[in-house]
Amino acid sequence: MQYTLVSADDHLDLNYTPVDLWQQRLPVRYRDIGPKVVERPEGHMWMWEGEPRGRSGRRSGRLTVGALERAGVPDEPEPGVFRPSSPTYRLQDMDHDGVDAHVIYGPDAVLALTFKDPELKAACLQAYNSWLAEEFCAAAPERIIGLAFLPVHDPQAATVELYRVAELGLRGTVFNVWECATPVYDAAWEPLWAAAHETGLAHQLPHGGAWGHATARCPPRRGGSGGLDPAHGVRPTCGRDHLLGRVRAPSQPHHCGGGGRPGVDRLYARPHGPGV
Fold it and tell me: What is the pTM of this model?
């Protein structure tokens, strides 16, 4: 496909995630404590591990007006069907806007919030990745380019999941460097970097935003773009050049994204392009 205009930093937030995604796809042993939507006094809420995690459906009381509201289109055009997570409606909106493709980051809440059980979190990420490949991106894989989440609690689990999502046909991943079981420069991660090179998937390494805190499992600052993140006033503990130099081959596309730095999120603007 020839791309003219690509949205390289699209999102699918938790509130617009299908309400039955995890209850349908999680192993039975995790369904009671896994993500589900429940009715509470404040409305329909996502909960897992017994705690409320965020609203399902349109958020109320926001200071800003969302794109769907500005466009005057319903965010729930059919009962239980949210526009951002429906490939049919997303493609309609893309055609209306003249956008060829969306590179889509999944719910930050599932990736960034702390789980008490790391195995539950890994199962949730796997379930999301399966839905992404089999139900969402499959409708138009050249246009809907969803990024898989890799577990970071165990290098072997991350490597296995990377191979699996590559087999499913997904074209990129998000690897949360801020919660790695061991620092990303540890030799334990070498099988993951080898698998990344072998599969040719692009990888997004968030360096700020929801992950910008002092406990990041990254190497000490060694030049590059490490130091104080001007967008968030946090101090990433790695230099981006050092990190990418460690984990990438010359032909392997990586994106050190997030953090609000102008232009960095456009490194995915050519989904089939060369490495960055």
Answer: 0.79
